[in-house]
Design a protein that fits this description.
single chain, alpha/beta, Rossmann fold, Arc Repressor Mutant, subunit A, 5 domains, seven-stranded parallel sheet, six-stranded parallel sheet, 22 strands, globular, binds adenosine-5'-triphosphate, DNA-binding
Length: 709
Amino acid sequence: MNDLIELLNEKQKQAVLSESQFSLVLAGAGSGKTKTLTTRIIYLIEELYVNPRNILAVTFTNKAANEMKERVCSYSQKDLPLTVKTFHSFGAYILRLEASLAERNQYFQIYDDDDSKKLISEIIKKFDIAKSNLGTIKSWISKYKQCLEDYSKMEYKDQTYLEIYKRYNKALKDANCFDFEDLLLQPVKIFSNYEEVLKKYQRHYQYILIDEYQDTNLSQYQLIKYLVGQNNSLMVVGDEDQSIYRFRGADVSIILNFTEDFFGGEVIKLEENYRSTSNILNLANSVISNNKFRLGKELFTKGLDGDKIILFDCYDEEDEARKIISLILGEHLTYKDTAILYRINNQSRAFESILNKNKIPYTVVGSIAFYEREEIKDAISILKWLVNPQDKIAFERFVNKPVKGIGEKALVHFYEESQNFNNDLFVTMQNIDSVKNLTKKTKDGFIKIYEVFKDKESVIARKTVDELIDYYLDNLGLTEYFKTKDEKENTDKIANIKEFISSIKYKTSGLDTLLLFLEEFSLSASTLKDNGQNTGTVKLMTVHNAKGLEFENIFVSGMESDIFPHRNSIHDEEGLEEERRLFYVAMTRAKRKLFISFCNNRNSFGYMEQKDPSKFLYELKIDYLELKYLSKSAINTLGFKGNKTLSTNFLKKINFQIGDFVRHKDYGTGKIINIKEKNGKNLVTVDFLDYSLMDFVLEFTKLEKLSDR
DNA sequence: TTCCTGCAGATTTTT
DNA sequence: TCTGCAGGAA
Ligand SMILES: Nc1ncnc2c1ncn2[C@@H]1O[C@H](COP(=O)(O)OP(=O)(O)OP(=O)(O)O)[C@@H](O)[C@H]1O
């Protein structure tokens, strides 16, 4: 144990050994907050002989939770029963045990945003509300739950919304489901209503530790406030400059008010950064210091200056991807130590396609796109409905697929009758004769479904999760349905299902495993596929997803106005400052090399749009920058007077040779017949099939290469 | 009442 | 480029 502690600096040690009941570690990026928290857990177990059962550690993502637990256990070299979860998975865990106190049973399922939206859209049909308001209402409801149903906190007040809210919750209850916000709200309600239950959990979790406390929202805070009783110890760590989840209700003032909320709390500040070179740190600091709403803090490193940060501009997003690739190859960056970060998910497209073309292995981290495919959602819905036959949203995904005459109206009659059977849709099918107004065809459809599921209990007991998916997709006719679709529309649905099935780790049969699988899927679908096969790949992710991570080499891409800061966040100062914090988080992920790029044009909905550099780029201090790959015009625009010349060498390296076939957006396909230098740029001559010869300045033109080498 | 097709409109960030 | 859904055919 001492060996571990000796590796820490004085401030970190102070935190690990702290005897205060409440303590806050407030420190900048890369100062070892997570490491300190983890070491403290080990210290509690190994030195203070705290029973691991009595420890609750809360992390921001499930991945971080697994890693933290893994670290603690590997130090002790055994599987310890400590609880490391996200707020949401902790909430789900409590609800699973106390479901009846929240009017559910233990088989409840968790609705994702899509499911919630479907439920809401059913409800607003009965109101005079346009479909286009669905998104607004969904976020209103989320917000209302996040602030613990405090109507005075809602900016927009509307009695109709409240009425919808009531019906929505009733529908959730009838479906025996919770939405994501419920996972926090309902435990808080339980704790406030049932004192003896609260006491039980207070006794259980004597030591509570929370990472990334700056991104806590009110319901999470209240949950902790309840859990921390007279005798509980609490340590939180965070950095107000890294608060980036305001859109989810995160409130920085919660961390700033810590010493008042938890009276007498000790505050420990870590000021030494162990992650980044000093150029990276200084550059990041030059940006974040533009924020007004911050405490301001010291952050230094004893490390090397390191390389200067390379700032470069690109013609468009594909050019950006190509340049990043040539930098990765040119600078000999190891794939696995390299991450490309971006503001919005769809920026990954260009990177993926160009990385693919160049056969560079990559992993998109935290992308849920795969799990949002029709076939995957259908498979999951079947499983969800198997354990929870009250779930209409799940039922509707497969009940009429392939078509068997069960439409909207038929379902209305069916659901009406289901109320007499405790909303159990399986039992309702069993009693299909009592459903009125069904045509013969429709009724036969229901009977068909019933036949497939009538022995579901024994099938669940017998089959593993992957076998269940296979079995029911086959029997419901979905496999056949997808096969036909694959052929007709040239999709890969069957292949996707195969891939999904093979990624399932659970290999035992039975209801318990199924429940476990579904809970993990609902809470962290995006990390499911992270199965160790991703070593040796370049990582692609949003900046939000990079929170808490570190890489040797970081590319921060798409630093353009409207994207970063995002156009929807620039209307108030707080939004803008949050975007700046996001940029700060992005830069401080880098240990050794940092690259920042932006495009002068970007495709959006098939149109090429001209782009301006992000306003944050003007805040970068030139002392820490390497501008050799930045175009002259960009140097002028950004007001960098360094006046370095553009390296033509760099661009040549990327690609084009005489003899290459290329495609131009307007002129079609052609062959490069000449390349020459002109004013420091590359002038290419292309012989187009449908046009005559054309000259282009390579740097200013989008030419797609058709053949490789 | 169900099914199919063409077209308008969409993209912030996530547990 | 992709997707959901309105509107009309069956
Ligand atoms: N005392 C130390 N000596 C050497 N390395 C350290 C020390 N403390 C932390 N580190 C290293 O510094 C890096 C950053 O640590 P950690 O991720 O815990 O920081 P953090 O404050 O949680 O960062 P962030 O807030 O940016 O997520 C890690 O690689 C960690 O191993």
